[in-house]
Hints:
By secondary structure, the protein is mainly alpha-helical. The chain has a domain at 69-149. It has five helices and no strands. The chain has helices spanning 2-30, 38-88, 98-103, 105-108, 125-132.
Amino acid sequence: MNYKNSNVERQIITKERMKEVFKKVILKKGRKQKGFTLIEIIAVIAIIGILSAAIIPNVNGYIKEAKKVKVVDQCRKVVMAAESYKLRNNLLAKSTTVSQMKTTGGVSKYLDEVNLSNLPDGTTLEECYSVVNGGEFDLGSDDKLKTLTVVAPETPKAS
Length: 159
């Protein structure tokens, strides 16, 4: 009978021991992690890299387009000033530059407090008309209109 009792005792001890081991394992798994693994950090960096590679070219295009819209707006203000001057006075020559318009008595009042920082002083009225009417143009490194690159839009031919 002693032999059987010792087996029973062994089984009880092993069951109790197993309960302790399971408690330790369960408690370890139940604890929250205090940081990120290296693989998680690398995955996040890779996702950020992919998203930035897709977004940055679009943002740069929008910035360039906004700068061009600013130039068109400033050319529109010059054209409106010339048209307003034309209503009361003589017609301005198409070769009149922005700097001449700023100093001409009748035209300068229409350009008071108008920011023309993106138009070089040598920009002509004709170039401003071309830009306003949809002509193609480029910007310099200083975000100013390159006066040599203004191309007038093609006019449709009558058939």
